Amino acid sequence: MTATAPREEQLWSRCAGCATLLYRKRLRRNLDVCPECGVHARLGAPDRLRQLVDPNSFRPLPDSPADVDPIDFVDVVPYAHRLTAARAGTGLTEAVLCGTATLGGHPAVLAVMDFRFLGGSLGCAVGELITRAAERALDDRVPLILVTASGGARMQEGALSLMQMATVSQAIAALREAGLLTVSVLTDPTYGGVAASFATNTDVVIAESGARMGFAGPRVIRQVTGRALPDGFQTADFLLRHGQVDMVVPRRALRGRLVALLAAARAGQPRRAGAPAHRPPVPRQQPPHAAADATPAEVTDPWATVRLARHAGRPTTLDYLESAFDGFVELHGDRLGGDCPAMVGGLARLDGRPLMVIGHQKGHSTAELVARNFGMASPAGHRKALRLMRLAARLGLPVVTLVDTPGADPGIGAEEQGQAAAIAENILALTVLPTPVVAVITGEGGSGGALALAVADRVLMLQHAVYSVISPEGCAAILWPDRSAAPQAARALRLTAPDLHRLGVVDEIVPEPAAAAHDDPDAAAEALREAVRANLLPLLDVPPATLVRDRRQRFRRFGAARAGNRSGVR
Question: Is the pTM of this model over 0.70?
Fold first, then answer.
C-alpha cells in the first residue's frame, strides 16, 4: 500500500475549483482544464510552449544572462538561496523561457513566463531575456508573443527590477515603430510591474479564460481600501467588460487564435510602407553610470530617510511650482472624463524658457492628503500626464517631472478604469517622446506609479528622497513576513539616493538644506531649480532622434548582461 501510494498520487489530481478527483491523463488530454467545471490550472512555461507551438519548432535563444544579485539582498533567506531553490524546483534558470518557433507554420519569437519561479517575478535577468527576445523579433522581422504569469517586479533586486518595466517597454516600442505585431497572452496571475508594462502595451492583449490581471493585488486593495471586492473582480471577464483586453479565449482555442493573428500580420506585412526600423545600437560593454564625484552626506539609517521622505512638511509639487518655477498655468483633465487631483501639471517657465511641468501632489494637512489621495494617481491622472507630455512634444517644449508618490492608486475604481494599462502607456510614450525629459524624485518614488513619470533623459533625486520597487512595509510583510521588519527591509532594498546613484538608477543627487527640505523649503527650491537648469540646458540642442536613442540606451543598460560591470553596493 505504502509503495504504491506515490504512483496513485501521480495518476490522479484534484481540481482546485470544484475539488473533483480527476484522472491525470484525462486532465492532460484536456490541456489541464477541468472537464467538470472548466477551471484552467496554471501551466509551467515548458508545458505552455508544448501546447502553443508547432511540434519540434521551438529553439531557445542562445543568450544566457549572468546571475545577478545587484544589491546583495537578504531577508530571512539570502536572495541567492531563493534563486537556487527556484532553479532546483522548476528545472529552469529563470522565470521566463524565450525562443523562436512557428505556430501554424508562421514564425514568431516567444517569451513565456513561469509563475513557479519566484512567482514569475520581473528581475534584471528576466527583463534582459525578454528584451533580447524583442530584439530578436526585430532582427528577424517577425511578431513577438509574450505569455505573462507574474506577481510583479522582483523585490530582491530593488529599483533595478523596476527599471526593467522601461527596458522591456522600449523594446516593445521599437517593434511598434517597425510595424511588427506584438501580442500578450495574460495568464493567471499577472500583476504589478508586469501588468503595468509589457503585458498591456502590446498591439493585442488576450486573456486566457480564468486569468486575473491588475496593477494591485486583491489583498493589497482590501488592506488599503477596507472594502470587500466585487464578484469576479480583476478576472478575464471583468477585464473584457472594462475594455482592458481585446478578447477572452479558452485554452483549447488559444493556439488557433494566435495562428489567425500571425497569419493576418504576415499577409499585411508586404503592404506596410517605409523602410524597416532599426533599433539603436546598444553599448554592450558600457557599464551603468557610476559616480566618480563625491555625493552629499549620507543618512546612516535608510529607515530614517524613508521617514524624512514622507515628512508632512516636505515641499510638494505645487510648492516647487510656486517657488522654483515661474508663471505656472495649470492644465486639467484627461479628456476622457476625469481630472485626478493626485497628478498636477501645466505650463511654466524656468529662466524665461517655457516648459511643461508634471508631478504628483500630496499635500501637508490630513485634509489635503485625503483630497489628493496621498499623491496616488488614478488612471485619469496618468492619462492627464500623458496628454500633457504629448502636448509638450507637439509644442516643442521640454518636460520636467516631479515624482512624489507612495505608488499608483490601488483602489477598485482604478482597476476598473485600467490602472495597469495607463501606467504602461506612459512608460511606453516616454521612451519615444521627442523632447527633453528631466525627472526629479522629490520625496517618495514608489514602484510603477513613480516610473510612469521617471523614464527620462536625466533622473535626479533629492538627498533625502527614496525610490523603490515596493514600500519597506510591503516588502517586510511579504518576505519576513512581519511589517515590523520594515526598517530591515528599507536597508535591504537600497532605496536611498546614494545607493541608487552608485547603481546608476539616478544621475545626480540634489543636496538638501541642513536636516532636510522641510526645514528650509526656499533653499530646497533653489537647489532643485539649479539642478534642473544644469541638467536641462545641455539637452535642449540635442536632436530629437538622438534624445530618444540615448534615452533608450540609458534604460537598456540595466539589463542583466551588464550585471558584471555594475559596482556592488555593500
Answer: yes
